[in-house]
Amino acid sequence: MTDARGNSRPNGGVPARHTPGTPCWVSLMVHGLDATEEFYGALFGWEFRPGPRQLGPYVRALLDGREVAGMGVLPPDRDLPVAWTPYFASDDVDLTADAVRSCGGTIGVGPLDAADAGRLAVGLDPSGAVFGIWQPEASPGTAVTGVPGTPAWNELTTFESARVAKFYATVFGYDEEPAPSVDAGHVTLRLGGRPVAGVHGVGGALPRERGPHWTTYFTVSDTDDAVDRVLRLGGRLLTPAHDTAHGRAALVADPEGARFAVVGSPR
């Protein structure tokens, strides 16, 4: 795992657009938007402003005035999971959607315009994991990274890594870097020589109720303090904080059950 920054600058500079294939946005669809805003506002210091409403009520989360994520309301007539979804940048979302279909994935939403912000589609990879595609116009996506409260990494948990990694590599132009033999089920997806996302095949250890899914990691200044805040705000701890080569991490869930991870700097 590493910081997937695309063209964003740690000092807050905003790029014209993210390199195609770069994770450029994360979005959460929930039932109760007001309560979700309160949770993440208290946890990460986010503020919110209205966003495009093509899919219903939607807000953009801002940190120090810069966009970092989005949140919307699940349509009442759709049985969809409450989950964070990563979006990958594209210069032509329609062509990328065609590539998704030709490589064995499906497109569940779009492609459609999000007002003047850009154009999007939501797809499923061959294993059933949900991801998004974003073609920017007025909004390039996440405008700041590398500071607490911003997305740091996206990791796909699936049954088998090789076939699914090949799907993303073909659609988005990634290079695949298999992990050492001690973790043969893990593949790092690289773009322009740098890691941008991970694919972790866990076989039968994948919970049936979850299925294949992406997990977004958010940077925090102190992982243990962040876990304490999650619990005080009504969330849950799913995997206790533990030290990794990339920092101290923990898997948590918000009050509606959306899973995400928090990761601090290595000690």
UniProtKB/TrEMBL annotation:
Gene3D superfamilies: 2,3-Dihydroxybiphenyl 1,2-Dioxygenase, domain 1. The keyword Oxidoreductase applies. SUPFAM superfamilies: Glyoxalase/Bleomycin resistance protein/Dihydroxybiphenyl dioxygenase (SSF54593). Residues 22-136, 150-265 form the VOC domain. Keywords: Dioxygenase, Oxidoreductase. Signal peptide: none annotated. One of its GO terms (molecular function) is dioxygenase activity. InterPro entries: Anthracycline_SecMetBiosynth (IPR052164), Glyas_Bleomycin-R_OHBP_Dase (IPR029068), Glyoxalase_6 (IPR041581), VOC_core (IPR037523). The keyword Membrane does not apply. This is Glyoxalase/bleomycin resistance/extradiol dioxygenase family protein. It comes from Streptomyces fungicidicus.
